[in-house]
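Re-running the complex after MR caught last week's input typo. The corrected sequence lines follow. Everything else is unchanged.
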Amino acid sequence: MVLMQGNEALARGALDAGVRFFAGYPITPSTEIAEIMSVELPKVGGKFLQMEDEMGSLAAVIGASLAGAKAMTATSGPGFSLMQENLGYAYMTEVPCLVVDVMRGGPSTGLPTNPSQGDVMQARWGCHGDHPVIALAASSVVDCYNLTVRAVNLAERFRMPVILLSDAVVGHMREDVTLPEKIEVVDREKPHVPYEWYYPYDDSTTAVAPLAPFGTGFRFHVTGLTHDRAGFATTVPAEVDRAIRNLKRKMDRFRHEIIQVEHAHLADAEVVVAAYGICARAAEAATVEARRRGYRVGFINLKTIWPFCFKLVQRVAETAKAIIVPELNLGQLVREFERAVCDRAQVVPINRVDGETITPRQILDVIGELARPGGGA
Amino acid sequence: MVVVRFAGYGGQGLLTAGLILADAAAVYDKKKVIQTQSYGAEARGGASRSDVVISDEDIIFPKPDHLDILVAMNQLSVDRYSSALAEGGTLIADGTYVTTVTFPDCYLVPFTRIAREKLGREIVANVVALGALIELKGVVSKKAVARALEQRIPQATLEINLKALEAGVKAGQEAAKAREKAEEDYDIV
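Corrected-run output:
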């Protein structure tokens, strides 16, 4: 058992998952991750680069990943905005990497040292064009470790960037934690064909096309232009259509494995509190207290926010009267709940953007308005 | 469950005080602990605080809405956070800077003056405060705090920090005695 900070656990998780390259530009509240990686990476034969800005940071990460390294960067809202262009490039070129966004108040430089969940939609649609997204959200120090390992594994497995969202509270919070002794580590699929048979974007035989590290004899073209299976630009409608649909398809098939949700008391719940990140802590505390007072309340902690857990929310809407969605923004993920619920249950947002966290008491007040102890309206 | 807040200006070592207390409670006294912090964007100055929640059971929400103990290093923190103290709570304030207190259960201990005059360095006022805190309110054992300091403080300044802890404990004893005496005097009157 150790006392560890969220950002510290995140860096530890990255190292244990096999990350050996970090490029970044320091920004509160993510800086500790870069600091720790700069000390620890050289000890394990890895490389740390402080770049000139966040655009350069993600560019370096993409290059390192193409050369075969598990690579990551960490930033906060303003830097995440700057990374969107290269993030799109990584989706298009199918380069695995981890992008950590320790969220702070925005827009612009906003509130550097206060928590926020304002980047939920930026994580989904920050870069242009249709693209699949995997975004995880950490709500505890242990999460920071486990979800980082998971994010790196998912990136390697699906050959795409994975976003890990944290926030100023979770990143800086210290908790007593016992980290797992053994973890599962996934390495990307490499080609087992002669050099001349290799197509970097051919997924006709495997769910995800194997990725050859540059410098190992396989020669291929990497471009942000829509490309054919060899990686060369194409405008042939059938090839373009296949390329764009494949980006989504490779992930859709495994959606049920990617979505990770923690929940409790859904079976008898009249009201369900659904949250992610730091708000999930308030939601859980409110649920425990509400049940102690006799309210039938359930709880969902979305450890994966993208892709969204539509099926679970649809099921919940069939039995629950209302779903409360607390967020440190003016209502972002709540829209997905509304889409999934389709008026079959009431969706009640709780929003806070003053730089403070939503408290269990705030949620309890709303539960009190929606339900009565023992159930029934 | 005990909730302790260290509050003052940025640069007064509040985050370190919170970290040492949390480490002492978690690693050496085997409690469940969450430590959170809040500070301005400034490198020095600005309001800074560190909250430590210590419990025998799992702590779900890291930021409770009440405080049991407030360690205030300046007047601003006393004014701002005294109202968050729960009934039965205790305010321990740096008498060097704090002149006005309204909370009933209160100790004024001149942490900064002790650090400056007895230890020669103001920067260890935070550890003096820690010493006074554990002497007056328990929370964690002195041994645990000393071990946490040994783990977290660079070797070059460890000695002065351990001395600061002792000085804080002594100042706490004196503050407790002074209050006892004041109460006796009050009874006579």
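None of the earlier attempt is carried over here. The first strand of chain B starts at residue 2 and ends at 9. Residues 2-188 of chain B form a domain with the Pyruvate-ferredoxin Oxidoreductase; domain 3 fold (CATH 3.40.920.10).
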